Amino acid sequence: MFKIFSFGTRNFSKCALRYQISKERVELIEKYLKKIRIFDEIDLFPADIDWGYVLNPTNLTSIDENIRTRKSNGDIIGLHRLNDDLKEALKTGDQHYIETIIEAMYHKAVQLPNISDPSSPIGAEENAECVMNVGEKKGRSPTVDQIAKMYGWLREDHISLYSTQRSYILKKELAELENALVRYTLNYLNDKGFILVSVPDILHHSIIESCGFATKGDRNQVYKLDFMNEYGKYCLSGTSEMSLAGLLKNRILNHDELPLKLCAVSRCLRAEVSGSEREGKLYRLHEFTKVEMFVLTLGDSKISSLMLENIKEYQTELFSDLGIHFRVLNMPTQELGSPAYKKYDIEAWMPGNQFYGEISSTSNCHSYQSRRLHIKSSRDKTDLSEKQSYVHTLNGTACAVPRMLTAIVESNWDMV
Question: How far is the C-alpha of 162 from the C-alpha of 387, rounded, in Å?
Fold first, then answer.
């Protein structure tokens, strides 16, 4: 049965005067930000930016280079210009002007991406490094769409009259296989010490943004509820990683409670754009079922990096017994998004249309999410004098059901 339930301030010793001024400015910024809650209704304070790091001029070049290699929208140059403006504003004593600049600095700072693991390839998706191949690549088979149509397993006609075009209805053996896959995955995760959590699929937009996913603008995959003022603050979750992270908001855990391994089964709702026709009807969807892993570790790079390798091992063990061929890719910097420090993708061979398709990924986000959601650890959380540090968060897909169905049905198809 399932169980019930960083960085520190960098050294400015090269210039004692600059260090002293910067330290005072950091304290001023932090003092102001501590007075506000960006979303008081859900008790969420501003992200705890490592101001000592991002405002240190000696880090400017490396941060800017990281932004460019990740192709991020972060603007470290603009942040440092605002810091210069703050220096001048402090001479005027104009409190409103000072606070306006600090708020502008905060909004610049939260847009900065995470740092990147040195082992991550530089550049775009085509630079991904294959680190593992498992199973034999099968020859061409009928597509899952053709097989499902033959046996009446997939309902697609007239579905757009009552749902979205990129939805699906599974029937008979294919629906049974969906449930069997979820059960198989949960049984495995239970044996590995994961705690099963049932999570909501409607989340405050600030939780999603704190996890590193944009909810505003045209180029995002987040569905937003838009009804009067209250519902406009909420979105549909694209992965249970967001709900599990929100569950731990403002938490302090004892060191001996870590690693904390959680999992959830949820519907994932995404405004996915249409892919190529060869992907098939069960590949790129607006709504699908997924089993997700979410792990907290101590805020130590060696520990969280080892956990990333453990999660990758869980995934490969899960998929190895399903009769599919897949490869594991160390993803390059432009594929890391904002939150990931390092990321692996797993792509399965789809024999029907002869292509590799992503079925899983796992990421180490270091303290990117925990600094935004204020998740910390301490030797004794009841002792407020004990030093507290931000945990590292990791996530991984254990089973994205529709794509797994495609890979399994096509790879194991035998007319005889």
Answer: 55
What pairing do the DSSP bridges indicate for beta strands 260-269 and 195-196?
A: parallel
DSSP secondary structure of 301-344: HHHHHHHHHHHHHHHHHHHHTTT--EEEEE--GGGSTTT-SEEE
C-alpha distances out from residue 414 to 120, 138, 170, 409, 410, Å: 39, 11, 21, 10, 9
**Of 249, 208, 242, 235, which is closest to residue 48 (Cα–Cα)?**
249
In angstroms, the CA 40 to CA 36 distance is 8
**336 close to 114: Cβ distance less than 8 angstroms:** yes
Q: What integer pLDDT is reported at residue 1 of this predicted model?
A: 40
Question: Taking the CA of residue 218 as centre, how many other CA atoms within 13 Å lie in the half-sphere pointing to its CB?
Answer: 0
The pLDDT, as a whole number, for residue 378 is 97
Return d(Cα 214, Cα 230) in angstroms, integer: 19
Q: Which of 54, 139, 179 is nearest to 415 (CA)?
A: 139
81 DSSP 8-state letter: H
- Name the CA dihedral angle for 205, 208, 212, 216, rounded to a multiple of 10 degrees: -30
d(CA 346, CA 350): 13
Divide the 416 residues of the chain into consecutive groups of 10 and give the mean pLDDT of each group: 37 39 81 77 89 94 98 96 95 93 96 98 98 95 92 77 75 96 98 98 95 83 76 88 97 98 96 67 86 98 98 98 97 98 98 96 98 97 93 98 96 76
Q: Which contiguous run of DSSP H or E holds residue 132?
A: strand 129-134
Question: CB-based contacts of 243: which residues, under 8 Å, 6+ apart?
Answer: 199, 200, 201, 203, 207, 237, 264, 266
In the prediction, which pLDDT does 231 show? 63
C-alpha to C-alpha distances, 185 to 59, 269, 341, 349, nearest whole angstrom:
43, 21, 26, 20
Q: How far apart are the first and last CA of the chain?
A: 39
* β pairing state of 260-269 and 388-390: unpaired
For residue 334, give both structure tokens.
Answer: 């432009």
Supply 316's token pair.
Answer: 């490969």
The pTM assigned to this predicted structure is: 0.91
Question: Hunting for tokens 């731990």 — which residue is that?
Answer: 248
